[in-house]
Design a protein that fits this description.
three-stranded antiparallel beta sheet; single chain; 2 domains; mainly alpha; two-stranded antiparallel ribbon; 5 strands; 319 residues; 10 helices
Length: 319
């Protein structure tokens, strides 16, 4: 999940009661505002209130709905998850197409969507070799498809097409490489739990203790304190999930957590740069409180291949 809010440095409330005013003018309105603030506002250790950068209840509700959908698909019938990732490919490509089009760059839409969906099936039913082969074919088709547009803009359009194929369907398909193992449903759940723990740890550490900016030019809300919270959350979740779900060694879970938090952070920074380059606040409005689909899966995209590699190397497959 996105770390864009996870490492957020807290901003002290300014304006006292007005910051939470419901619009009333009488004494009752001020009392209601004070009660609302005391009940729903997080505070720093020194007592100062802090404010999150998004609508947290909506964000949590949307995230739980997405998690329930994933769980419902992979537990009773794992192949059904290929349908979910295929839908994600279509929605994500739609967001990228709009972003590129705003800069006059045109994607080879049909080869990307067809190839991206085929890559999901190739990863689950065929494995890594079929996945790489499908990516190669889709890339060639994308280059050929653009020939009909002539020489002007060919390089930038083709580059955007290849970027889209790699950034979304290829990285997304690594989730299916995890799921394809005999114990794949637990590998995928472990990966998602570890990545979400990065968000949770970073979010609360960032808003409560955030002081020192991590990358002020790229993503000004991220702090090193938030990153430390993400590291702790990820490594703890990694140790627990690998040991309890996959019967693996605790040290392998710690390695998984450390690797995932680094990958998730890089993934979020990449997404932040993409949005800054396009001049966008969000890639879309797919889920209430979450922004676009790509805003939700940015950290998961980069963390997916890392988690697959770490688990494949360090945690034996359970029959």
């Amino acid at each position: 999940m996105s770390n864009s809010d996870s490492f957020e440095g807290a901003t002290p409330e300014r304006g006292g009661d007005d910051a939470f005013s419901s619009g009333g003018t009488g004494p009752g309105a001020n009392d209601s505002s004070d009660a609302h603030e005391k009940r729903f506002t997080l505070h720093k250790p020194d007592g100062r209130p802090v404010r999150a950068g998004r609508n947290l209840p909506l964000a949590i509700g949307s995230g739980l709905a997405l998690g329930a959908l994933v769980y419902a698909a992979i537990v009773p019938y794992p192949p059904a998850f290929t349908l979910i990732t295929s839908i994600a490919v279509v929605l994500g490509v739609r967001e990228l197409r709009r972003a590129f089009a705003s800069r006059g760059v045109h994607l080879a839409l049909i080869p990307i969507v067809a190839g991206g969906v085929a890559m999901q099936a190739a990863a689950f039913f065929g494995g890594p070799l079929w996945l790489v082969g499908t990516l190669a074919v889709a890339s060639i088709l994308g280059l050929v498809w653009r020939l009909r547009g002539g020489a002007e803009g060919y390089v930038q359009d083709s580059t955007a097409t290849l970027f889209t194929l790699v950034y979304l369907p290829l990285l997304l398909s690594t989730w299916l490489l995890l799921l394809a193992e005999p114990d794949g449903r637990w590998r995928l759940i472990a990966f998602i739990v570890v990545t979400i723990s990065s968000d949770i740890g970073g979010y609360f550490a960032g808003i409560l203790f955030g002081r020192h900016k991590m990358a002020p030019v790229i993503s000004p809300n991220k702090t090193w304190e938030g990153f430390a919270g993400s590291v702790l959350g990820c490594m703890l979740a990694g140790a627990l999930t690998v040991h309890l779900m996959l019967d693996g060694p605790i040290w392998a879970g710690l390695v998984l957590g450390a690797a995932v938090v680094l990958a998730a952070t890089v993934g979020d920074l990449i997404e932040s740069l993409i949005k800054r380059d396009f001049g966008l606040k969000d890639m879309g409005s797919f889920m209430p409180g979450h922004g676009g689909l790509l805003d939700r899966v940015d950290s998961l995209l980069i963390a997916g291949p890392v988690a697959w590699a770490v688990l494949s190397l360090l945690v034996p497959v359970a029959g």
